[in-house]
Amino acid sequence: QNVSVEVLDHLEHLALVDFRDSEGVERLQKAIQFADQLHEVNTDGVEPMDSVLEDRCLYLREDDVTEGNCTKELLENAREKVEEYFVAPPGNIPLPKLEERDTFLQGS
Q1: The dihedral of CA 63, 66, 71, 76: what is its sign?
Q2: How many CB atoms lie within 10 A of CB 105?
Q3: Contact of 17 with 11, CB cutoff 8 Å
Q4: Mean pLDDT taken over the chain
Q5: Which terminus of the chain has a lower count of CB atoms within 10 Å, N or C?
Q6: Does residue 25 contact residue 106 with C-beta atoms inside 8 Å?
Q7: What is the SS3 assignment for 75?
């Protein structure tokens, strides 16, 4: 399944992922082929569910704070931080404009 340049550009901006090389595009195409298998499942007459657990009674727990004051320890897990904040998504990169795409996408 080929992915058009326009769809690729839209996905990159939504996911903040760079598919600029052919390996990235190939991986995306394989993921789409894998997901396309779901079209083979017959869902005629099957009503959509609100939850996969809709036959069970779900209970809310009390919202009791049992720990905290661990900002320093949590921020040690950050790849990149500014002051006391995580920088997310890590590795956020500027994406190329649609007209700047490499030639490997021209056949898509």
Answers
A1: negative
A2: 18
A3: yes
A4: 78
A5: N
A6: no
A7: helix
DSSP string spanning 6-44? HHHHHHHHHHT----SHHHHHHHHHHHHHHHGGGGS--T
| Entry pTM | 0.41
Q: Name the phi and psi angles at 82, rounded to 5.
A: -125, 120
Separation of alpha carbons 105 and 108, rounded Å: 5
* Residue 77 DSSP class: T
Query: Percent of the chain beyond pLDDT 90?
Result: 9
Q: What type of residue is 104? A: F
CA 90 to chain centre: 13
CA–CA gap between residue 16 and residue 13 (Å, rounded): 5
Q: Domain ranges in the chain?
A: 1-40
Go through 48-59 and write b for each residue having 16 or more CB atoms within 10 A of its CB, e for each that does not.
eeeeeeeeeeee
